[in-house]
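Recall the central idea of this unit: under ordinary conditions, the amino acid sequence of a chain determines the structure it adopts. In this exercise we apply that idea directly, starting from the sequence alone.
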Amino acid sequence: MEVKMNFYDRIMHEAAVERAALYAVPLNMDSPQGRITRETYLAYLEQAYHHVKHALPLMMMMGSRLPKEKEWVRRILVDYIKEETGHDDWILGDIKHAGGDVERVRNSKPSLPVELMNAFNYDNVTRGNPMSYFGMIVALEGASTELATKAAEAMGKSMGLGKECFSYLLSHGDLDIEHVQFISKTLNQVTDAQDQADIIHAAKVIYLLYADMCRGIPHNYAKKAA
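Accordingly, the structure predicted from this sequence is:
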C-alpha cells in the first residue's frame, strides 16, 4: 500500500537536487571538518548578517498580508518571530568575539546572491504569495540544523575560538531540533495546493541562492593544506 508523504517530507524530496547543490559547496563540506580559516568564517558571518537582519521584517510583513482564513498561520508566526528576534545581533556579537570589524560589517553591502535572496523574498511576500516565505524558513533552518553544530565545534578547535564566537551557529544546530520539528508540524498543516507549490518553489530558489552565497565566500583552506 502506498504511503502518502506529508508536506514537509515532500518539500525535502522535491528540493533534493537543490539541497544537494548547497551541501556540495566546498565551504560547506570543509566547515564540519574544521578546514576553514578565521577570515572565511568572518566572511560567512558578514553575509549571514545581511540576510538574517531581514527575517523579522519579512515575517511581520508576511503576517500582515495573510488572508483571514490563514489566521492560524498568523498566530503561529507570533511565536516564531519571538524565537528569531535578535539573531542578527548574535551574529554581530560573534564577529566581535572572533576579532572582526562589527561596524564595517554593519555598513557593508551584501553579496549579489544575498541581495537576490532578499529581493526574491520581499517580492514574494509583497507581490506574490506571502506563504512562500516558508520556503526560506524550511531551507535555511533545515540546512543549519544539519551543518551548524558540527561546523561550530570543528572550527572552534581548529581556530582556537571559544563558544562565544559561535552563538549564531550553535543556536541553529542540534540544539534547535525542536525548532525544526515545530516548522515541519506547521508545514504539514498547509493543504492549499497553490501554497504548497509556491513554498516548494521558494525553497528550491533559496537553496540555490544560498549555495551561490557560500560559493562566493573566499575559501582556500584546502588549497593551502595541499
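The longest helix spans residues 133-159.
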